[in-house]
Amino acid sequence: MSQAAPKQTHVPLLDVNRGNQALHAEIMEAIESVVTSGRFLHGPDVGELECKIAGVCETKHAIGCASGSDALLLALMSLDIQPGDEVIVPSFTFFATASAVSRLGAIPVFVDIDPHTYNIDASLIEGNISSRTRAIIPVHLFGQCAAMDRICGIGQSHNITVIEDAAQAIGATYLDRPAGSWGEMGCLSFYPTKNLGGMGDGGMMVCHSDTLASKLRLLASHGMSPRYYHKVLGINSRLDTIQAAVLRVKMAYLQAYSDARQRNAARYDDLLSKHGLTQWFELPYHAPEAGHVWNQYGIRVHSGLRDAMRRHLTEMGIGNEVYYPVPLHQQECFRELGYATGSLPETETAAAEILHLPIYPELTESEQDMVVEGIKRFYASATLRRAA
Ligand SMILES: *Cc1c(COP(=O)(O)O)cnc(C)c1O
Predict the structure, then answer these.
(1) DSSP character for 6?
(2) Is the domain of 268 the same as that of 246?
(3) What is the DSSP letter of 265?
(4) Residue 54 included in any domain
(5) What is the spatial distance between Cα 157 and Cα 86, in angstroms, rounded to a whole number?
(6) Pocket lining for ligand 1, CB < 6 angstroms
(7) Quick one: 71 and 128 in the same domain?
(8) Is residue 319, in this structure, part of any structural domain at all?
(9) Relative to the CA of 304, which of 7, 77, 282, 353 has its CA 20 to 30 Å away?
(10) Exposed, middle or buried: residue 193 (CB in 10 Å: 0-12, 13-18, 19+)?
(11) For residue 140, which atom of ligand 1 is closest to its CA?
């Protein structure tokens, strides 16, 4: 769907430059030392970032790789997933959660979401388990963890591996335990829009098990050990040293970024309620068990007004986005999996109603006020039209 370009963007959906510019000197110094060293792969920057990430995730191991998508692929490869195996995933997520499954010839089994958290509905998982089910990939969507106590319980009782897609949830917790530490493996992304965003692609896998950790490392480096002896069919997936150096600088601010996102979310909740706007839409639900890190802030607009509100905000120069407009079970590339429209009703409704607002850490209070004002004006004119 194309939209009229705004004359001027008053509030960007995301401005990565604000965070990065504040650290410009530190980042340039880190990059320069990599350039000077001439070591562009591995090296202390990668190792130390892995240690720090393992610390945040409270796992024994962290293994860098080229992207969050590769982290998911490698996690599945480490389980020796075979063609025809099934992996349970939500449909309301970014494409990579399911493409990793299909890449290996396995079958993504899409499960509907809890309409409040937008995460996989744990009560629907057991009904989708078959003798071919090898893994469950809960996604911690928008920065809020799925119901990991229940999901890991199901995994244990059926002997099925749980891989957390924590791409949007570094630093999040569930019942005070960090995202990535619940399942057998956790997958992180450093794509620039994520809470810890690099200057390009990057990813990491975290786990507790020594065996899994060495398997993941082996698979990420061509299955090669020692050099030029290939034990298993691996891929080339490394975290570049320059990325690791940048991420090490930014890592020191991760808690501050999460705090700022939480502050922004609380302020939206407050302002949108105070202006009486919550009679028109739902604020994002925050589960009491979840330490939410707010990668995204999505309101839920009923009565078919979502797209009209989008257009209105865009015309006012207020950044907004829909994550995600087409659920995976309705994507063209997954058509042969045979999911009919209506097969995952909560997922389909959420995709039609959700609307995301700017939430990044450096968003100012006056910008937030403009976003709220934009929404207020939309309902004022919608109410007027209805009265006329
Ligand atoms: C971003 C993202 C990924 C993929 O990460 P990349 O680093 O972009 O490959 C996977 N899953 C989810 C839920 C994501 O948001």
Answers:
(1) P
(2) no
(3) H
(4) yes
(5) 17
(6) 67-69, 93-94, 96-97, 139, 165, 167-168, 189, 191, 201, 203
(7) yes
(8) yes
(9) 7
(10) middle
(11) 13
Total domains, the chain = 2
Query: CA–CA separation, 54 vs 119, rounded Å?
Result: 24
Residue 2 lies in a domain: no
The answer as to whether 276 is a domain residue is yes
Task: Examine the domain organization and report whether 221 and 264 are in the same domain.
Answer: no
Residue-range definition of the domain harbouring residue 302:
254-387
Report the SS3 class of residue 274. helix
Distance CA 240, CA 248 (A): 12
Q: What is the CATH number of the domain that holds 53?
A: 3.40.640.10
Tens place of pLDDT per residue across the chain (388 aa): 445 555 577 999 999 999 999 999 999 999 999 999 999 999 899 999 999 999 999 999 999 999 999 999 999 999 999 999 999 999 999 999 999 999 999 999 999 999 999 999 999 999 999 999 999 999 999 999 999 999 999 999 999 999 999 999 999 999 999 999 999 999 999 999 999 999 999 999 999 999 999 999 999 999 999 999 999 999 999 999 999 999 999 999 999 999 999 999 999 999 999 999 999 999 999 999 999 999 999 999 988 999 999 999 999 999 999 999 999 999 999 999 999 999 999 999 999 999 999 999 999 999 999 999 999 999 998 776 766 5
According to DSSP, the β-strands at 203-207 and 61-65 are: antiparallel
Top mutation candidate among 91, 93, 191 for ligand 1, by most atoms within 8 Å of CB = 191
Please tell me the pTM assigned to this model.
0.96
Point out the domain boundary residue: 217, 251, 285.
251
Same domain, yes or no: 344 and 294: yes
What CATH number corresponds to the domain at position 309? 3.90.1150.10
Burial 67-100 (b: 16+ CB within 10 A, else e): bbbbbbbbbbbbbebeeebbbbbbbbbbebbbbb
Are residues 94 and 146 both part of a single domain? yes
Atom number of ligand 1 nearest to Cα 202 = 7
Which residue's alpha carbon is at the smallest distance from atom 1 of ligand 1?
Answer: 167
